[in-house]
Amino acid sequence: MKQARTEADRQRREHALWFTVLKFGLPVFAAMIAALFVLVCVAYGRVRSIVTIELGENSPEASAFLRSDAFDARYRSEPEIRYKKAGDYRLYILTGNMSVPVRLQVKDTVSPAADAAETTVPVNRTLTPDKLIRNLKDQSVVKISFENAPAFGTIGDYDAVVLLEDESGNTARVNVPVHVRAAVDEVICEAGDPVPEQRTFLIGTYETVEMTEITEAMMHEPGEYPIGITADGTETGSRLVVRDTVPPTANGTTRVVLPGEEVTPDMLVSGLFDETEVKASFVSAPDPEVRTPQTIGIELVDRGGNETTVTSTVLYSSIAPVKIEARRSPLEVTELIAGGDAADAALSETFVPSVPGTYLIPVTVGGEQNLAVVEVEDTTPPVIAVQKTDGFTNTPLPPEALVSAEDVTETVLSYADEPDWSIESQEVTVTAVDVCGNRSEKRFTLTLKPDTEPPVLYGVKNRFCYVGEPVSYLAEVSATDNCDEEVKIEVDASEVDDSRRGNYRVTYSATDRAGNTVRKTVTFKFIRAKVDDDEAQEIADKIIAKILTDDMTLAEQIEAIYNYVHNHITYNPKSNKQDWRSEAVRGLTTGKGDCFTSYSAARLLLEQTDAQFLSVQRAGANTHHYWLLVNIGTGWYHFDPSCVGASRRRCFMWTTEQTRRVSKTYWGFNESLYPPVATEPYNGGK
Fold this sequence. Notes:
Elements: H1 2-46, E1 50-54, E2 74-75, E3 87-95, E4 98-107, E5 113-116, E6 119-122, E7 133-137, E8 142-148, E9 156-166, E10 171-181, E11 186-190, E12 209-211, E13 223-231, E14 234-243, E15 249-252, E16 254-257, E17 269-273, E18 278-282, E19 294-302, E20 307-316, E21 322-325, E22 345-347, E23 357-365, E24 368-377, E25 383-386, E26 390-392, E27 403-406, E28 411-415, E29 425-434, E30 439-449, E31 456-458, E32 463-466, E33 478-480, E34 489-492, E35 502-511, E36 517-527, H2 533-547, H3 554-568, E37 570-571, H4 580-590, E38 592-593, H5 595-606, E39 612-617, E40 626-631, E41 636-640, E42 651-654, H6 656-662
Parallel strand pairs: 1-4, 6-10, 11-14, 16-20, 21-24, 26-30, 32-36, 37-38
Antiparallel strand pairs: 2-3, 3-4, 5-7, 8-9, 9-10, 12-13, 13-14, 15-17, 18-19, 19-20, 22-23, 23-24, 25-27, 28-29, 29-30, 31-33, 34-35, 35-36, 39-40, 40-41, 41-42
Helix pairs in contact: 2-4, 3-5, 4-5
């Protein structure tokens, strides 16, 4: 009994437990299932399960699967960027806290596309269909086949149809014109071209070819010529088309027409060229009654209808054209009209036939005005004369330094072979050619010797300078050499301290190409300026504005400066000969001073012009005298504006010989310090 009760109790407890589970657990489980269902419904409510794209398009963004832009989405793993085959692809997107499976459907609905490649193919060749299309476009592999194939091997024109089919079954058709030929339809040539070769007419390569002969005459006659061709037993034909598209070329002429002579268009044309026959005609015919030159248009038309118009000159005259050798003496009327008729003729103006060319010369014959055509020609070669047969080694000379050439026209000299300037003795040939091409030669012995003579320095002398102002060490300094045209001058002013008063040594040197050197050392004395440069320039500018005008030549400017100083400054025996600038200002402002004052004033004013000048001091005398040498491109001349002593004779642009005629000592100077003074009297700068 007791065991029975115990089993009954156990069963009651189990029933109570299940009752409790069913009472409380079942609702919880149901709630969880319901919640999960709600979440899935929510997720699938946001998402499209399928998105479709065309083959070849990029994979869409994950957001393409969402039904609303209000939610975010991303792929759980990135898909391929572009799919290569059509089909369905399973993907997963993440939205909210859910991973939702979706399907990407890739379709291929676009048919292939291609352009027709119209083709001409030889009879002995077969083409596959892919050779008849170009620019094939499709996203998958395309099968290419003939739907309608041309009859390769048989001459004719065919409309081939090429079928295109991709892997998805999309199809397209391309119509392609195909020409089966053994030869081209035509070969086009320009008149005058060489006879074309056989292969120009053929399409493809053939072992045996027979063809109608093409002659040179056909190539100069525009037209179409049938050409029969047999290639490897296949008979066919082509055409040779000769065209003339190039107009004629020609030059107009000048023609003198004598009484009774008839003029045709062909007579007024020279240098005519065209590959076909050309017909010439007057645009307007010349008038035989007109005695002045007439400009006539000549129209030229070739067989191709191409036109060219040239202009010519016609002159009706009673005087026949003549040729005259170039010379420097005037033309005589008897050279135009012979015999007794010359007595009744006269030249209307003087004509010197010195320049080759064609000229119209007015001539009066029997009271009637005519124009004679005179052709001046130069057939005489130049005459060469040797002037110099020596020089210096390693110092090339132009041929003009060795010889001169006499000719009516301009002449160019040159060496037949450039001399070896390192050899002391050699034969040299100089050639002279005038403007008309006449040539002559002169052969002589050229002797060279080493250059042992150093350059010559000019203008190197003791000078006064101003403390703290820039020094132009090369002002008034120059160098010449017996060989070199230009010599570089070097200045050693390393001892100079231009910030302090004192005497400093300055060394000048010049070296020529042969290594010969000259050196000169002078003293530069630095003093403190009593008048600064700006003050001096202001005074000079006022005077220049007063005495010079814009239309003056340089020669007129320097003469105006000379006259102003010469007439403005009266002699006073005192001056500060160590400060030229203050003396210039003193002389120009007070009108008093000695020769140094006049020199200084002229120097200041000349600095305002383009004239070159050098300072000169008298040498070999007990007293001082100062003046200038001036060069305006005509050579160096003495320029002494002081109104005292012998200079009262107006020493304006004098030669040294002119100064010596007045006084051998007054203008005596160390000529070795200066470049040579001109020997010809000054001509006013002309």
